TrEMBL record, chain A:
<feature type="compositionally biased region" description="Acidic residues">
    <location>
        <begin position="230"/>
        <end position="240"/>
    </location>
</feature>
<dbReference type="Pfam" id="PF07394">
    <property type="entry name" value="DUF1501"/>
</dbReference>
<dbReference type="InterPro" id="IPR010869">
    <property type="entry name" value="DUF1501"/>
</dbReference>
<feature type="signal peptide">
    <location>
        <begin position="1"/>
        <end position="27"/>
    </location>
</feature>
<feature type="region of interest" description="Disordered">
    <location>
        <begin position="226"/>
        <end position="249"/>
    </location>
</feature>
<dbReference type="InterPro" id="IPR006311">
    <property type="entry name" value="TAT_signal"/>
</dbReference>
<protein>
    <recommendedName>
        <fullName>DUF1501 domain-containing protein</fullName>
    </recommendedName>
</protein>
<keyword id="KW-0732">Signal</keyword>
Automatic annotation (TrEMBL), chain B:
<feature type="compositionally biased region" description="Basic and acidic residues">
    <location>
        <begin position="56"/>
        <end position="74"/>
    </location>
</feature>
<protein>
    <recommendedName>
        <fullName>DUF1800 domain-containing protein</fullName>
    </recommendedName>
</protein>
<feature type="region of interest" description="Disordered">
    <location>
        <begin position="23"/>
        <end position="74"/>
    </location>
</feature>
<dbReference type="Pfam" id="PF08811">
    <property type="entry name" value="DUF1800"/>
</dbReference>
<dbReference type="InterPro" id="IPR014917">
    <property type="entry name" value="DUF1800"/>
</dbReference>
Amino acid sequence: MDTLTRRKFLIASGVVGAGALAAGATAYTLKDILATAGDRPADAGTLVLVTLYGGNDGLNTVVPYADASYQDARPGIAYDAGEVLRLDDRTGLNPAMKGFHRLFTDGRLAVVRGVGYPKPDRSHFRSMDIWQTADPVRPGTTGWLGRWLDTAGGDPRLAVSFEPALPPLLAGATSAGAAVPTGARRRAPGVTGFGAEAAGEPPLQARAARCFADLDRIDQMITEVRDAQPDDPDADDDGGDPATGTGGRAELGAQLDLVAQCVEAGVATRAFSVSLGGFDTHADEKQLQEILLGKVDKAVTAFADRMAGRPVTVAVYSEFGRRVRANASDGTDHGTASNVFVLGSGVRGGLHGEQPSLTDLDDGDLKHTVDFRDVYAGLLSDVLATDPAEVLGGWTGRLALTGS
Amino acid sequence: MADRARIAHLLRRATFGPTAEEVDAAERAGYPATVERLTQPADDDPGAPVFPARDSPGKDATREQRQQFNQERRQQVTTAVEWWLDRMVTAEHQLAEKMVFFWHGHWATSAQKVKVARLMLGQLQTFREHGRGDFTAFAERMVRDPALIVWLDGQKNTVKAPNENLARELMELFTLGIGNYTESDVKAGARALTGWTIDRATGTARFVPRRHDRRAKTILGQTGDFDADGFAALVAGEPAAATFLAQRLWFRFASNDPIPDGVRERLSAAFTARRNVDDLLRALLTDPDFPGTGGQLVKQPVEWAVGALRQLGVRPARLTDQQRKQLVSGLNGLDQVPLRPPSVGGWPAGAAWLTTSSLQARLRLAEQFAAWAAPAVKNRLKAAPAAGRTEALARLLVVDGWTDRTRSVLAGATDKPEQLLRLGLVSPEYTVH
């Protein structure tokens, strides 16, 4: 198979590729996948989306420490000028984010402030649906990266999640990314044969069959990536076992480690989804949030350093920030606009977007200054080289976060 | 098309998944009599269990009591989900139960926001009592359904501060479809719906006249002092409602492909005469295009699981607590848990259920189902001669036949009934129908 044909085959498979598989072509080996590295456009970017579930408190992550109304609104949980890691003379990072501070100083971290959407919803589920579908009016069943996958040909290996279940983010209208648990998965015996399409069967039934072939290819890709890598003693973040059969999410570090292995192996995947939960800090927030942000900082910084020099961009977001005023339990309740972090080698570091006012509020909450779709549009066009309007329902705004 | 295949197709669509014996009986009765039996069930369903009602704890306001209350409230929703799954499996009037599930996906209301099991179950009861007859009366009941009101912020909709959520979805998603109303209809419709609130203590909807907008409204070209009933009756009587309902029912019971013009006209006409849902349903099941829709629907996860449990002789209520938990968590892995639709738009359909992620969940659940299968079912497979076991499996799962591909996969497991069941349940032929 010549390079061009193989590239088309890989990028546009999903439907076509699996059909060819069924017709007798062999499944991909790591060698095939490594060989595709040169087939990707030299600057083909990889996007790693980090979801913080629970609503991370943005005001205690990127802290407007010099604003008197910040200190007034949050007695007991506010950080003062001496505690924060300064970004400028008004803004500082949570003390747990030393690695992010270094990346910021190096010009590799963009901090986008005030990101949100009109008519904010304070339900975790609804708001997360809105963020993942990129539809603030009526979040449907397709995610923005799933719709990108539709336009990119639909091969599930192009969009991979290292989470137990597929996030709505990666579900497209005609295709879906692959959920690959980080732990060793017991493979179901005896089903490989279902992957072959039978002559004359109805299209949906053929598609059900192709799922088996897709699952097999994903299994194979991951197994070979694992086998190709020497065991990394540092991979086991926090000493926790990433394999959990209890539905708990694997640690962020373990997920990102697998992403790094895939990128280094040059697999076809262009978008990865990883996540960390537990940010719903209604009570005794300060200590809890520092632990969680420390995990994010350690895992993401290590990943960014390992990926230095490669066209890999990381974006970190949560479904909402929290209310400006602390509650009576030294915590904060569900709020609205918050920060998005974008980092990587090609990123224009620095502060982006306008810090929302802490006094001109919407029913006690920040008013967003940057529409979240502007951030997505930047990532789609700069990292995934896709027309954002096609994926974001005609949205034309865009925040330029990468390039010079 | 052979008679048995036509009857099996009818039962696969009109029930959650027929047993071989049900197909035998229907074959003896014939197609028309089976449609009659399906669409005209007796009043009581001896198979259907009754939900065990529980008293809500008092609302004393200490933090611990509130937490306790919330925990119990969550537990009640879980109990309600398990209860309904059991009812789906055991109900003898399968089409009646499947229509309740259809309307649940149509007026897609989620316990995620409603939170109170009693309100969710009250809505199911409304589907049961009113979802099969006069559509206008049904729509009038729905606009005052407490769960729907909470779900779409109806209690926040007042003369001073109208909330358009319910009015918009009523027209867009529940009765007319997009393009059959204007933004000014939404605004006026919202004003018609003002004044309904929820009495938290009794879990009932209550009309508060001073919150209602009494002024005249113009909706869909008609001017009058519409209230909730008037607005519901107006939209339910629109010609567009007939077309819309025909499309939605065809989409879930017949085919994910676009409805052919001829079918749409026939079903709309059948509905329009009395604006009766059963008339539409009967027309659908006897439509000349219906038998040709085989293979055009992907079973929704709940349909797949409930059908499998029926065929394997497994009753959820008789499972252990642990097993019931596995059942619900398996459905969660498949992205379809009853009482929790993802949004007011309801669940997706077709290829959206065919992902590598859902396949992994299906593989796990199928393995558990096979292990839970009634001994009699496994024995029946064992009793068949080895060479005939794949056919016995097809009969058990009411699959018309296996492709050569699947036959050769099954051939490797004919000596292990549990394996055979597991493979049959995940086979492409069983996943799609």
